[in-house]
Amino acid sequence: MAAYLIAQVKVTDPEIFAKYSSQVPGVIEQYGGRYLVRGGATEAVEGSWTPARLVVVEFPSMEQLKRFYHSDEYAPLIELRNQSAHTDLTFAEGI
User: Could you give the number of structural domains in the chain?
Assistant: First the structure.
């Protein structure tokens, strides 16, 4: 079953975040992931959720998503992201 990484990101340091965002696609691809949503305009239609930046990445399975997230390759990128953005992140299984 497919699994999705869903992130709401508020960039606080664009220069450092650019380093993160230029390196992360290759690691995502290495673990079988693919972007479905990466940035772009958002529009709140109901409720109060208004993400500044929305990211959705599809992986073949929850197991593969967790391999990506806990990988040695992604660890230094998490540090870059944490230095340059506030992120709310969740994993969800889907169809």
Answer: 1
User: Under a CB-based contact definition with an 8 Å cutoff, are residues 74 and 27 in contact?
Assistant: yes
Give dist(CA 5, CA 3) in Å, integer.
7
**Buried b / exposed e along 12-49 (16+ C-beta atoms within 10 A):** eeeebbeebbeebeebbeebebeeeebeeeeeeeeeee
Structural domain that includes position 7: 3-42+51-93
Per-residue pLDDT of the chain (95 residues; tens, 9 = 90+): 999 999 999 999 999 999 999 999 999 999 999 999 998 888 889 998 888 899 999 999 999 999 999 999 999 999 999 999 999 999 999 98
How far is the C-alpha of 14 from the C-alpha of 3, rounded, in Å?
A: 28
- The predicted model scores a pTM of 0.93
In the chain, the amino acid numbered 34 is R
